[in-house]
Each structure stands twice: as structure tokens, then as C-alpha cells.
Amino acid sequence: MKLVVAIIKPFKLDDVREALAEVGVQGITVTEVKGFGRQKGHTELYRGAEYVVDFLPKIKLEAAVADEQLDRVLEAIQNSARTGKIGDGKIFVSSLEQVIRIRTGELDQDAL
User: Fold this and answer.
1) Per-domain residue ranges for the chain?
2) Using alpha carbons only, what angle is made at residue 60 by residues 54 and 63, rounded to the nearest 5 degrees?
3) 2/109 Cα distance (integer angstroms)
4) Which helix (H) or strand (E) holds 19?
């Protein structure tokens, strides 16, 4: 089992959610976050004053998936989140040692 964490642009959330549903992902966790990478923020003008926005709004998606689903999930996120411009985001994949469904006590693959 793998934990897939994707940081994407906020306006791409619906596209990514639909793409994940199409490849069989049954649940995701979504968090509104702020951050920066190579983009390094940007400058904005407000009431005639210029100021730097260091942290840009992003969406963090988390999904636990079976090993055999991983390639399809990664492809779905990449294809649906890509704009071709800087700041499209990143995907992180890590191993899950154990998953437990609290309600039923099911373990691992059955808990997904």
C-alpha cells in the first residue's frame, strides 16, 4: 500500500478528483495549504503599494492506494493537474505499513 500526497493548484481540484474517481480511488483527503517551491511567490499591488506574497495557496491531496493502483493514480494526477506552467505542484509517494478501518477493524487492503 502507498500513500500518495499531491500538492496542486486550487483550480485543478475538481479535475484531479474526477480523474482519481475514474481510476477507482474511493477516498481522498483535501487540505488547503500555502507554500512555495521554485516559484518563490510573486509580487502584488494593493492600494498603490507593492508587496511580496511568499506563500501561494495550494491544495494538498492525500490518498491511500493499493500497490497495483499506484501507476494509474500517478498518471491520473499528472494528466489532470498539469497546466504546463510553473507551480503545477509535486507528487510524493510513501509506503504505508498498516491501515485500519476504525468502524469495522478491517486491516490493510480491506480497510481501503
Assistant:
1) 2-111
2) 160
3) 11
4) helix 13-22
pTM of the model: 0.85
Q: What is the pLDDT of residues 72-99, one digit of tens each?
A: 999 999 999 999 988 899 999 999 999 9
Q: Residue 77: left (phi > 0), alpha (psi -120 to 50), or beta?
A: alpha
CATH 3.40.1160.10 describes domain 2-111: no
Q: Which residues, including other chains, have CB under 8 Å from residue 96's CB and lie 6 or more apart?
A: 1, 2, 3, 64
Which residues does residue 92 pair with via DSSP β-bridges, in sequence order? 5
Span 3-56, pLDDT tens digits: 999 999 999 999 999 999 999 998 999 999 998 777 666 666 677 776 677 788
Q: Cell digits for 97?
A: 505499513
Contact 63, 110 (CB under 8 A): no
